[in-house]
Amino acid sequence: MTPTGLAAARKHDALPKADALAEALPWLARHRGRTVVIKFGGNAMVDDHLKAAFAEDILFLHHAGLRPVVVHGGGPQINKQLDRLGLDTHFTAGLRVTTDETMDVVRMVLAGQVQRELVGLLNRHGPHAVGMTGEDARLMTAGRAYAEIDGERVDIGRVGEIAGIDPGVVRALLDDGRIPVVSSIARSTDDGDSGVFNVNADTAAAALAAALDAEALMILTDVEGLYRDWPHSDDVISRLTATELDKLLPELASGMIPKMRGCLHAVTHGVRSARVIDGRVRHSVLLEIFTAEGIGTVVVPDDDPAEGTAP
Ligand SMILES: Nc1ncnc2c1ncn2[C@@H]1O[C@H](COP(=O)(O)OP(=O)(O)O)[C@@H](O)[C@H]1O
Ligand SMILES: CC(=O)N[C@@H](CCC(=O)OP(=O)(O)O)C(=O)O
Question: Which CATH code for domain 32-300?
Answer without folding.
Answer: 3.40.1160.10
